[in-house]
């Protein structure tokens, strides 16, 4: 058997790639080029040998600061281009290769020029806005002043006719009456302030003026005919022109302070109509000149931004790469005496040849007299986990990694997730009609895969599941002549799904309940057995015979003596058409194993078989719990027997070892109590989990039944009823209802399938305590790395 297993061909995704720990000794003159070539290759994960140093204490901190400053300037250019509404040129612009120093000078010149143009443009825009507001105030305020002047004239005429027509009265008029005679606004002390304010502040502004002057003012307002651009947010704002009439210097001071607090701009408006017209013509002339100047400035600025946009993507990529190279160089140790850089890291075993070729090319291109030393080392720490995936397997690998990254060389659940996950999803989806809708949606996503390839998670999670809708609700054909005994068919009346003769019968729901519940148990037990079998392959791969004898074997015995036996009873009941009560059989297998089964007996010798299986399940519990900790203690005692002296430090054994190197050895003390408690927890968790996990698989039955019944009610009570009442159905409403139902069912089925994989399946063999292989690669750089 072992020879047969050894002869099986290896699976690509079953085990992570073999990794090797390597050391690089790079001369200073070829360090930058060597790291750049390794970044293009993207198969080496560097180890930070300067973790104890702050970022400002590292060797290439100045170069990193320069790159960060250039990145800031490039982001500034990008923001300016987007605000101007310009698009980066997609055409390839021929430009000679430029080094980092020349690029830094060019970026500084472009930034200085752009900042100066923005400053001039802001000043011109502010002047233009002030003139435009002044023009609007002149137009609106003149109407207020003319109307108030006409009102004053009419009041004066009426007063002269009624009161001051008698000459004798004028001679004997009192001082108070003389004060009440109408005079001009200047002689009587009546003044006004005109200006413009945001429309949203008018109500609060008027209320504040009324309270400050105690009602001794007259507030007139009119909306502005034009919107004015805000120089900060570049948004068009609606404003309102106001004129406030008041009397007294104290009121004037208060009104000006309130205008300043509310951000209102005040403009002087003469009372003379001829002066108003003259100022309006002058303001209009200056506005025309400023518009021409602003348009010329915008054209010049857009031309400068266009020249930058043609090279922006290339420059950003160049600076991003340079910064990544210097960040990586800061992870290396700088040897001043030998004038070289020492680095360590992990790389896949298959990539050693490619890396050596890249380093040789870097030595040749940099004209270095000394070559780069590349040699493997032994490491105590666990290597990173690296799986080579494609566009189809990557989403399933991401699902597994979301739970935990696989330990190095551990069996990868993603191999089986690619098949089992869509299968369980289909079991819970429960309706093949909605499955067709989901299939069509998945085909659209596949057709647009290239456009959607930038997303982190692919859209393949569901497209496999919709092709295996086993628990269909509406079969293709109907043949009432078909008859069954148990689940043995004597005719072939339907292509898939259950017998259509159950459709619409009174026993449809009890039959489907029983069928789907039993199928859920069968699939669950098979799924958990697969997980335990994978734990055997893990133990055999790592050479752990203890895990095989004292973990795999008792777990298989315990699970299959109880729930494997239940699965056997389900299959026998289906095949024989027996009416035995399986609940009664399983309950009394524990309570009264020696009692006669009576009519619940399914086969000869069932009672003694149940007693044997129960005894094996009871024996399997201490088998899992006690032997392994005591054997580990014995092996540890024999290994270190007679060693009264501790090992020397690593630096004394190996004088060439780096202080921060991964080659440091750590001798851990064996703690029997900790090992025993861990084994006890693991055994108890498996025993209790066997029951709870089997019950958890009943969610396959519950969700399938719920979704299928919901789809049936929705189809019969909504769609068919709507189509029967209305001659012309509302296709938009019906489509939206169908889509909502499909999305709801898909989400719930996806989440529960995820739960079954993460908890019920992977806890049987999957540790998930590894860490991902994250190599230094230019291809993985994003805008966030700027």
From TrEMBL:
InterPro entries: V-ATPase_116kDa_su, V-type_ATPase_116kDa_su_euka. Residues 100-127 form a coiled coil. It is a multi-pass membrane protein. The chain crosses the membrane at residues 419-447, 519-537, 557-576, 609-626. Keywords: Coiled coil, Hydrogen ion transport, Ion transport, Membrane, Transmembrane, Transmembrane helix, Transport. It is found in: Membrane. GO terms for cellular component: vacuolar proton-transporting V-type ATPase, V0 domain. One of its GO terms (biological process) is vacuolar acidification. It holds the Pfam family V_ATPase_I. One of its GO terms (molecular function) is proton-transporting ATPase activity, rotational mechanism. PANTHER family: V-TYPE PROTON ATPASE SUBUNIT A, VACUOLAR PROTON ATPASES. Belongs to the V-ATPase 116 kDa subunit family. Essential component of the vacuolar proton pump (V-ATPase), a multimeric enzyme that catalyzes the translocation of protons across the membranes. Required for assembly and activity of the V-ATPase. This is V-type proton ATPase subunit a. It comes from Sphenostylis stenocarpa.
């Amino acid at each position: 058997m072992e020879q047969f297993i050894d002869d099986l061909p290896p699976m690509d995704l079953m085990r992570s790639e073999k990794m090797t720990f390597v050391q690089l000794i790079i001369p200073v003159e070829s360090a930058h080029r060597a790291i750049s070539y390794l970044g293009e290759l993207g198969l080496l994960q560097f180890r930070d040998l300067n973790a104890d140093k702050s970022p400002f204490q590292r060797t290439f901190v100045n170069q990193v600061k320069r790159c960060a400053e250039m990145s800031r300037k490039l982001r500034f250019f990008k923001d300016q281009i987007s605000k101007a509404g310009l698009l980066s040129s997609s055409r390839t612009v021929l430009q000679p290769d430029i080094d980092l120093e020349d690029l830094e000078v060019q970026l500084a010149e472009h930034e200085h020029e752009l900042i100066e143009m923005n400053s001039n443009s802001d000043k011109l825009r502010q002047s233009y806005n002030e003139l435009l507001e002044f023009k609007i105030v002149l137009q609106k305020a003149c109407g207020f002043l003319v109307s108030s002047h006409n009102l004053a004239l009419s009041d004066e005429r009426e007063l002269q006719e009624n009161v001051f027509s008698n000459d004798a009265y004028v001679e004997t008029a009192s001082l108070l009456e003389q004060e009440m005679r109408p005079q001009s606004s200047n002689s009587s002390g009546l003044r006004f302030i005109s200006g413009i304010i945001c429309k949203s502040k008018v109500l609060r502004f008027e209320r504040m003026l009324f309270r400050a002057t105690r009602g001794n003012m007259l507030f007139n307002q009119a909306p502005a005919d034009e919107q004015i651009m805000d120089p900060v947010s570049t948004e068009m704002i609606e404003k309102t022109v106001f004129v406030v009439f008041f009397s007294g210097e104290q009121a004037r001071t208060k009104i000006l302070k309130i205008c300043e607090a509310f951000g209102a701009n005040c403009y002087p408006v003469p009372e003379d109509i001829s002066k108003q017209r003259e100022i309006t013509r002058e303001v209009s002339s200056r506005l025309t000149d400023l518009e021409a100047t602003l348009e010329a400035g915008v054209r010049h600025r857009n031309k400068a931004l266009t020249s930058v946009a043609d090279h922006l993507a290339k420059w950003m990529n160049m600076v991003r790469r340079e910064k990544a190279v210097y960040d990586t160089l800061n992870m290396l140790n700088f040897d001043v005496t030998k004038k070289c850089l020492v680095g360590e890291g992990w790389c896949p075993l298959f990539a050693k040849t490619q890396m050596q070729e890249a380093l040789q090319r870097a030595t040749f291109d940099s004209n270095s007299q000394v070559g780069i030393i590349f040699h493997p080392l032994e490491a105590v720490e666990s290597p990173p986990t690296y799986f080579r995936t494609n566009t189809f397997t990557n989403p399933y690998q991401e699902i597994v990694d979301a739970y935990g990254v696989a330990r190095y060389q551990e069996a990868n659940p993603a191999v089986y997730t690619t098949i089992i996950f869509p299968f369980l999803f289909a079991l819970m989806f429960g309706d093949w009609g909605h499955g067709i809708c989901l299939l069509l949606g998945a085909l659209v996503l596949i057709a647009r895969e290239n456009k959607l390839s930038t997303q982190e998670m692919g859209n393949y999670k569901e497209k496999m599941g919709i092709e295996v809708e086993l628990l269909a609700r509406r079969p293709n054909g109907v043949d009432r002549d078909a008859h069954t005994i148990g689940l043995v068919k004597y005719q072939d009346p339907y292509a898939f799904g259950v017998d259509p003769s159950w459709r619409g019968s009174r026993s449809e729901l009890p039959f489907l309940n029983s069928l789907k519940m039993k199928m859920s148990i069968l699939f669950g037990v098979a799924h958990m057995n697969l997980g335990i079998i994978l734990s055997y392959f893990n133990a055999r791969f790592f050479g752990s015979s203890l895990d095989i004898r004292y973990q795999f074997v008792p777990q298989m015995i315990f699970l299959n003596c109880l729930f494997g036996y239940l699965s056997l009873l389900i299959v026998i009941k289906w095949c024989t058409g027996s009416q035995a009560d399986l609940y009664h059989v399983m309950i009394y297998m524990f309570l009264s194993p020696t009692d006669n089964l009576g009519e619940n007996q399914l086969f000869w010798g069932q009672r003694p078989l149940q007693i044997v299986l129960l005894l094996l399940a009871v024996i399997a519990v201490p088998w899992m719990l006690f032997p392994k900790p005591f054997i580990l203690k014995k092996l540890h005692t024999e290994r270190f027997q007679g060693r009264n002296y501790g090992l020397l430090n690593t630096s004394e054994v190996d004088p060439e070892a780096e202080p921060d190197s991964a080659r440091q050895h750590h001798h851990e003390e064996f703690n029997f109590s900790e090992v025993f408690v861990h084994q006890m927890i693991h055994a108890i968790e498996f025993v209790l989990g066997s029951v709870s996990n089997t019950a958890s698989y009943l969610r396959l039955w519950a969700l399938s039944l719920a979704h299928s019944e919901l789809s049936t009610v929705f189809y019969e009570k909504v769609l068919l009823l709507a189509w029967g009442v209305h001659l012309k159905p509302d296709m938009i409403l019906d489509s939206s209802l169908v889509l909502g139902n499909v999305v709801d069912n898909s989400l719930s089925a996806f989440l529960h399938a995820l739960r079954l994989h993460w908890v019920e399946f992977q806890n049987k063999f999957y540790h998930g305590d590894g860490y991902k292989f994250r190599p230094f690669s230019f291809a993985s750089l994003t805008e966030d790395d700027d």
